[in-house]
Design goal:
Order of helices and strands of chain B: EEEEEEEEEE
Strand content of chain B: over 45%
Number of helices of chain A: 0
Shape of chain B: globular
Largest interface: A-B, 27 and 30 residues
Oligomer: heterodimer
Distance between the termini of chain B: 24 Å
Largest sheet of chain B: 6 strands, mixed
Mean pLDDT of chain A: 93
Structural class of chain A: mainly beta
Low-confidence stretches of chain B: none
Low-confidence stretches of chain A: none
Distance between the termini of chain A: 35 Å
Number of strands of chain B: 10
Number of strands of chain A: 11
Mean pLDDT of chain B: 92
Radius of gyration of chain A: 13 Å
Chain lengths: 114, 113
Amino acid sequence: DGGITQSPKYLFRKEGQNVTLSCEQNLNHDAMYWYRQDPGQGLRLIYYSQIVNDFQKGDIAEGYSVSREKKESFPLTVTSAQKNPTAFYLCASKPGTGIRQPQHFGDGTRLSIL
Amino acid sequence: GESVGLHLPTLSVQEGDNSIINCAYSNSASDYFIWYKQESGKGPQFIIDIRSNMDKRQGQRVTVLLNKTVKHLSLQIAATQPGDSAVYFCAEIYSGGYQKVTFGTGTKLQVIP
C-alpha cells in the first residue's frame, strides 16, 4: 500500500539537542510539507518542497531545518534554537502543484522535552 | 495527536442522527476547500473537497456546502456512526503563489451510541 511513513511516533529531546524526524513517501509525489500541530490551533506550515533539491520556508521555519535529497524523503531537524518544540509534527505530500490535489498526511511524530 | 481535541468546540450527536460541522474561512480569494478527519493519534484523512465554482458536493454519506457570500463551509454527515468520532477541520486554498493552505482549528465530533 502506498502512503507516508513518519518515524518515530514519539520522540524526546534534551536541552541543547538537535533531533531529526523522518518522513518517507512511496506515492511518487513531488511536493512534500512539514506542519506543526498544537492543541486548539490549526496546522502551521514549517517548510515545504515542491521538487527534489529545493525547499522553501513556511510560516514558522525558525529553529527548524530540512533537506530534500531524494524524492521520497523529507526529514525535518528540530534544532536547539527552537525554544518551544513540544508539539505534534505532521508530514504531508501531494502529487504536484495542481490546484485540485489534497495533501496526504502521515500519522505524525509527537515531540516532547525531557 | 492525542491532545489535538483539547480546547476545541465539541458537537455531540446521537448515533444514527445527521451531523453538521461548520467552518468560517478567511480569504474571499480562496478557490478550493477540503474537509479532513483526524482520529486520535493519527494524521488527518481527506474526506471531501469542493471548488469555489460549486456550492454543493456529495460523497458517500457526506455533503459539503459552500456559501461564498458569507465565507462559510459546512460538512454534513448522514446517519452518524461511532466510527465518525474524530476532529474535523476545513482547509482553504488560494491558488495564487505556491497555493497557500490555511487550516481551521477543528471541531470535535462525539457520537453517542
